[in-house]
Design a protein that fits this description.
By secondary structure, this protein is mainly alpha-helical. The protein folds into 2 domains: 157 residues, no CATH class; 67 residues. It is elongated and about 155 Å long. Keywords: Coiled coil.
Amino acid sequence: MPFFTVLGALARDQTAPCPSFINSYDNAPWLHTSRSFVHDIDKLPDPPASALASRLARNLHIFVALPLTPFRDRVAATSSVAVAMDQTTLSTLDLLESRLLRVEHLLYGQTVSPSLAQEYSALEKIGDLEKRFSLLTSKIRVYGELIKIYKSHPDFFHSADPSEPPSQLSADAVQSIVLASASSFPSTLSSLTAIKDSPIPDPSESTALIALGDRMKAVEATQLAQAAEMADLRKRSERIIRSWYESGVLDNSNVMADLVSRVETAERQVRRAERELDEEDDL
């Protein structure tokens, strides 16, 4: 069973079998704030191998939901636990270490794992995990910022019960917010009453409108066909007008221009002849 599934069982069932030092932390504040994370993570499916960002985010949520310092202090104080309980603790830490190794593998590639034959105590494993997790958060600035935000504003990471006041606000602050919004309560009540008293439209009108949907689609298709036909008529009219202008108006203009030029030439010749006759008469 994965480690976050064990935590999910602890959050759902207070009588679930687990190590005694975990049961002693059942009323700790950090466990209550992380239960919503555990429930959400327990319901999530395993991400695909190609979804790198999704896997990183999921592993980060698991680490955020599980502070390591309380485990380390408690394990140091309970060194005389039973062998079976110690094995349960070590297996839990092994699962957590495998999660951390997955994150390191996704970020840095292949890592060299310690020898499987080498035995480590629970305290040494927790210390090693804490160091590696601190190194990870120091190298990846986003992870460190997310952990800071989670510690200062845990309400951002899970939806609180609407009946419960915000945990970050004092009772006086909540009271001032309620009193500041009290003036809008009557107007909101009147609006809701007006909405409640407003009559429901006759369903037959909506049914008739829905029945007209096919006819409206047919009319729309007819309009589109008419628009296409009008565009074709405009193009044909443009071609006809251009042909008439080029073959009629321009040709007539050319003929008139030729006639004008011939008349001007004839006038010049007549004037020249008159001038010659006048000169002969003078002589």
